[in-house]
Amino acid sequence: TVAINLSAVSLADLALVDKIHHRVCANQIEPSSIILEITETAVMANVALSLNTLARLRLIGFGLSIDDYGTGFSSMQQLARIPFTELKIDRSFVDGSSESLQLENMVSISLDTARKLGLTCVAEGVETVEDWQLLKRLGCHVAQGYLIAKPMPGNQLIDWIKSNSKRLREL
To answer: Number of helices and strands (H, E) in the chain?
Structure first.
């Protein structure tokens, strides 16, 4: 899958759904292989329009991820109102969670929430093996962060995968 961030401005664009759907179809890509990431603040900028746009995208088959989970004011409300498929735990809870019982508990609660709602859970900001081992022990299967890789241009991805596949399997 590929994740794409959507801003508040793009969620307010009445033509967004048609634009994205057209591009995906033109390139023979399955909508289910695209996850659209949305922050709570982006949704809250124009709730009615955002909910309409997100519902239409989900009906077409796109995945929806609530990004930076736990940092906003209405996380539970948004999870109930929007048909999300993924929850991304914010790095402020993940980074150092292996050294802090409070952070570990916050991560555990977020993972439990995701499981109970049938959502895939992604941990952001995984930078140490210790944090990743804790996350795996708590039941998180997807990580994002410098332990895995630093951001890179798309044209470097294939070479990076070839040279790092063994290391990734060992994590």
So the answer is: 9, 6
Cβ atoms 81, 51 nearer than 8 A:
yes
Kindly give, in sequence order, each residue whose CB lies less than 8 Å from that of residue 136, ignoring residues fewer than 6 positions away.
none
State pTM to two decimals: 0.82
**Predicted pLDDT at 74:** 55
Here the contacts of 133-142 (C-beta below 8 Å, separation 24 or greater) are: 133/98, 134/97, 134/98, 134/104, 134/107, 135/94, 135/97, 135/107, 138/104, 138/107, 138/108, 138/111, 139/111, 139/115, 140/89, 140/107, 140/111
Q: What is the pLDDT of residues 72-87, one digit of tens each?
A: 655 677 677 788 999 9
